[in-house]
C-alpha cells in the first residue's frame, strides 16, 4: 500500500491498545490483507477502501496522522476494529522530528541532527545538565529512568520473541518506548530503537535491503545504552555520549577554501537516503556537505546530481567532488558537517587532483596511524564522528577477483587487502564497478574506503583514483577529475587496463575473521532471528571457543544458554511471569564481548608484523 501519510508512534499505539484481546491475535494477518487496499486522497484527507461498505479515513495535520482519533473507520466495530490498526501499521512512522538525520555513509544515519544551516543548539528541558567532562556524576530524572526502562523492556521482548515472533504488537511497543525515550532526551537509545523497528518492518515486507547482521547490531546498541541509562547515574565524561543530542549545534566558521574529495550515496534502515560529499580544506581537515531526507535507494541514486546547499555556487554534489569552493559566512557542526544558512556565501573554485596538495597528504599518513584513527572512530556513535575520521586512504595493486563481487588487492608494501561493496542496492553502481575492477590484475589505484570492523583487512571501497606514475592504467574521462566515485560513476572495461601480470586468484574466498568468533556471532544472530528457544542450543560452540582459547567467550555463551533454559514455575509446574531479565543481560554480555573481540582482532590484522 502506497500513498499513506506518516503516523506518530502514539497514534499507532492508541489504536492497538483499543483492540480487544481476541482481535490482537489477528492483527498481523489483517496487516497483510491491508497491503492490497486502495488508497485515495482528496480535500486533505486520505481514504482507504477496505470493501464496498467499509472505508478508513485518515485526518492529516501538518502532513502527519497525529492521534488515534485521526483514523476513522466506517465499520460497525469502530473504533475498536482491525481496519484502523492495519492501515496505520502500514504507514511510515513519523519520528517526531522535522529534521533530517546526521548523515554518514554506510552507517545508518541517526535522526537526531538539524538540516543544513541550522545554527542553534536546542536543549532538552527534561534532560539533566551534563556539565563539563570530569565533573560530578550526572543523575537522570525519574522520567528518564522510566523511559530507559521502557526501552530495555521493549528490546528484551523483541530479543526473546525473535524476528519470527515479533509482530505488530511488539513493534508498536518498541515504537512507543522510542517515543518516550526521545521525549525525555534519550536520543541515542531512541535512534537505535527506531532502526530496530525499521529492521523488523523491512523483514516483514521482505525488503531486499534487510540484513540480520545490522538488526543484531542495532538491538545490541539499544540494549547496551538502555542498560547503562537505567542505572540512573552516569559518569560526567560519558553522559553526553550515552544520552545523545536531538539537534547538533552549528558554529560560525571563518572563510574556507575547500577541495572536493569524493561523493558517497547514503541509504539508511531508518528510511533516510541521499548523498554526502567529502571536501578538504587547505590544512587537510575533512568536512562534509550532505543532502539526506526520507527516501530509499532510488533517492540516493538521484541525489548525487542535486545542487549543493551552500550559497549559490550552482554546483551539484558530483560536480563539487571534482571542483573546489570558497565559502564565507559558513557554519558547521563540531563533527565537520557544513551548514547552509542564509548568511552563507559560496563561489565555485578550481579543485585539486588526489595526487596534489592538500589531498595528497591524506595518502601520505602511515597506514597504522590511519587504521588506529578509523577503528577509534567506528567505536563512536555515527553522529559524534569527525568527518572522514573513519576513512582509510590506501595505495593498492589489484590482485584479482574474489567471491561475492569483492576484489583482492595488496598495498604497495605487499599487505593483503580485500575491497568489498559498500552498498549492494542495485540502483547504485558499486557491484558492477567492483566486478570490473576484479578483472584488472596488476592495476595500481588510490582508494578511499571504510574498514569493516568485523573482517580482517577488509575495506568498503567508496572511490578510486589514478595512482601517481602509473600512466594510462586507469583511463577515466577528463571530466571525472582523475577519480571515480564507485556508488555513482559507472566504469567501463575499456577504462581499466591491467598492469603487471600477477598469478590468477579468481574465486579465492574473502578473508574473514576468527572462525570461533564467527560461530559466536552466528549464534547471536540466530537468537535474534529465532528468539529465546534458539539460545539454549550452544554446547558445541562453547567447546569450539574453549579450544580457540576464548575462555571468556565460552563462559558468556554458557551463561546465555543457561539463562535461556531457566524459566520460573509455580508449585504446579506452570510457567510464571518472566521478564527475560537474566536472558537479555546474558545475550547482551555475549554480544558486547563479540563486538570488542572481533574489532580488536580485526584491528590487529592491519598492524605491521615484527
Automatic annotation (TrEMBL):
<feature type="region of interest" description="Disordered">
    <location>
        <begin position="98"/>
        <end position="140"/>
    </location>
</feature>
<protein>
    <recommendedName>
        <fullName>SWIM zinc finger protein</fullName>
    </recommendedName>
</protein>
Amino acid at each position: 500500500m502506497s500513498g499513506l501519510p506518516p503516523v506518530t508512534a502514539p497514534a499507532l499505539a492508541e489504536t492497538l491498545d483499543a483492540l480487544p484481546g481476541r482481535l490482537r491475535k489477528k492483527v498481523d494477518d489483517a496487516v497483510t490483507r491491508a497491503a492490497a487496499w486502495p488508497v485515495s486522497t482528496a480535500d486533505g484527507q486520505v481514504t482507504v477502501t477496505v470493501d464496498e461498505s467499509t472505508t478508513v479515513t485518515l485526518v492529516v495535520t501538518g502532513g502527519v496522522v497525529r492521534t488515534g482519533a485521526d483514523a476513522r473507520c466506517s465499520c460497525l466495530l469502530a473504533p475498536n476494529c482491525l481496519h484502523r490498526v492495519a492501515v496505520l501499521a502500514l504507514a511510515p512512522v513519523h519520528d517526531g522530528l522535522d529534521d533530517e538525520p546526521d548523515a554518514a555513509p554506510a552507517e545508518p544515519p541517526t535522526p537526531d541532527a538539524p538540516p543544513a544551516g541550522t545554527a542553534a543548539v536546542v536543549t532538552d528541558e527534561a534532560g539533566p545538565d551534563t556539565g563539563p567532562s570530569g565533573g560530578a556524576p550526572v543523575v537522570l530524572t525519574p522520567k528518564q529512568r522510566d523511559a530507559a526502562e521502557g526501552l530495555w523492556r521493549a528490546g528484551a521482548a523483541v530479543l526473546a520473541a525473535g524476528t519470527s515472533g515479533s509482530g505488530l504488537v511488539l513493534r508498536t511497543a518498541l515504537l512507543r518506548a522510542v517515543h518516550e525515550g526521545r521525549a525525555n532526551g534519550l536520543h541515542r537509545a531512541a535512534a537505535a530503537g527506531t532502526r530496530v523497528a525499521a529492521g523488523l518492518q523491512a523483514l516483514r515486507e521482505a525488503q531486499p535491503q534487510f540484513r540480520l547482521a545490522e538488526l543484531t547490531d542495532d538491538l545490541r546498541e539499544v540494549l547496551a545504552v538502555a542498560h547503562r541509562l537505567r542505572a540512573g547515574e552516569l559518569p560526567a565524561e560519558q553522559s553526553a555520549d550515552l544520552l545523545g543530542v536531538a539537534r547538533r549545534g552549528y558554529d560560525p566558521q571563518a572563510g574556507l577554501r575547500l577541495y572536493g574529495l569524493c561523493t558517497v550515496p547514503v541509504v539508511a534502515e531508518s528510511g533516510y537516503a541521499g548523498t554526502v560529499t567529502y571536501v578538504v580544506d587547505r590544512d587537510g581537515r575533512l568536512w562534509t556537505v550532505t543532502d539526506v531526507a526520507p527516501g530509499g535507494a532510488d533517492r540516493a541514486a538521484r541525489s548525487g546530481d542535486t545542487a549543493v546547499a551552500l550559497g549559490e555556487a550552482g554546483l551539484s554534489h558530483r560536480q563539487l567532488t571534482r571542483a573546489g569552493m570558497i565559502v564565507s559566512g559558513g557554519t558547521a557542526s563540531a563533527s565537520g558537517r557544513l551548514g547552509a544558512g542564509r548568511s552563507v556565501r559560496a563561489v565555485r573554485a578550481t579543485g585539486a587532483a588526489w595526487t596534489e596538495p592538500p589531498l595528497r597528504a591524506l595518502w601520505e599518513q602511515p597506514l597504522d596511524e590511519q587504521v588506529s584513527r578509523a577503528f577509534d572512530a567506528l567505536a563512536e556513535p555515527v553522529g559524534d564522528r569527525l568527518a572522514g575520521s573513519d576513512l582509510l586512504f590506501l595505495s593498492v595493486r589489484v590482485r584479482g577477483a574474489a567471491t561475492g563481487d569483492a576484489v583482492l588487492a595488496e598495498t604497495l608494501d605487499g599487505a593483503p587487502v580485500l575491497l568489498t561493496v559498500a552498498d549492494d542496492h542495485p540502483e547504485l553502481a558499486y557491484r558492477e564497478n567492483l566486478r570490473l575492477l576484479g578483472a584488472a590484475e596488476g592495476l595500481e589505484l588510490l582508494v578511499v574506503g571504510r574498514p569493516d570492523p568485523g573482517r580482517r583487512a577488509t575495506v568498503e571501497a567508496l572511490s578510486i583514483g589514478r595512482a601517481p606514475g602509473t600512466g594510462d592504467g586507469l583511463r577515466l574521462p577528463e571530466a571525472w577529475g582523475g577519480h571515480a566515485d564507485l556508488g555513482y560513476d559507472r566504469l567501463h572495461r575499456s577504462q581499466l587496463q591491467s598492469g603487471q601480470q600477477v598469478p590468477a586468484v579468481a574465486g579465492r574466498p574473502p578473508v574473514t575473521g576468527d572462525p570461533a568468533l564467527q560461530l559466536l556471532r552466528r549464534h547471536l544472530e540466530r537468537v535474534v532471528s529465532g528468539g529465546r528457544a534458539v539460545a539454549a542450543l550452544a554446547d558445541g560452540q562453547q567447546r569450539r571457543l574453549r579450544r580457540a582459547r576464548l575462555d571468556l567467550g565460552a563462559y558468556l555463551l554458557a551463561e546465555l544458554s543457561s539463562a535461556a533454559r531457566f524459566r520460573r514455575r509455580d508449585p504446579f509446574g506452570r510457567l510464571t511471569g518472566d521478564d527475560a531479565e537474566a536472558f537479555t543481560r546474558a545475550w547482551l554480555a555475549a554480544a558486547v564481548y563479540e563486538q570488542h573481540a572481533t574489532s580488536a582482532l580485526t584491528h590487529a590484522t592491519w598492524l605491521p608484523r615484527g
